[in-house]
Design brief:
By secondary structure, the chain is an all-alpha fold. The chain is 80% helix and 0% strand. Helix 1 packs antiparallel against helix 3 and helix 4 runs antiparallel to helix 5. It is flat, with a radius of gyration of 17 Å. InterPro entries: DUF486.
């Protein structure tokens, strides 16, 4: 149960992180947003990133083996990185129609899966 909760919170966290980091590139299509200055865009992104932390911190607290969770620190980090890349890939394909998956992306994804396998191998 803690493993699924941790993974769910990490997915939510990384969804907000992706919006905070890359959403402004898509939001620039909105006329009112495009008129904003860099400081305004940074503050909006920072506000979105607050929600990232609202999910990331509990995910790490619940998931960390030192707190009774199922994952070591290294496992948590690798899990977070893989989730980040999956969320980003989905975001880029949905939000930016110019992005496409290529063979090298799929090969890289296979290597990420292998990395997770070896990190979690006892």
């Amino acid at each position: 149960m803690k493993a699924l909760l941790t993974i769910g919170l990490l997915v939510l966290s990384n969804t907000f992180m992706t919006l905070a980091w890359y959403g402004h590139l898509k939001f620039a299509e909105w006329k009112w947003f495009n008129k904003l200055g860099l400081v305004s865009i940074i503050l909006i992104s920072w506000g979105i990133a607050l929600f990232e932390y609202c999910f990331q911190v509990p995910a790490n607290k619940i998931g960390f083996s030192g707190n009774g969770g199922p994952f070591s620190l290294v496992q948590l980090k690798v899990l977070q990185e893989v989730i980040t890349l999956i969320v980003f890939m989905i975001f880029s394909l949905i939000a930016f129609k110019t992005e496409t998956l290529k063979l090298n992306h799929l090969i890289g994804a296979v290597f990420l899966i292998l990395a997770v396998y070896f990190i979690f191998k006892k």
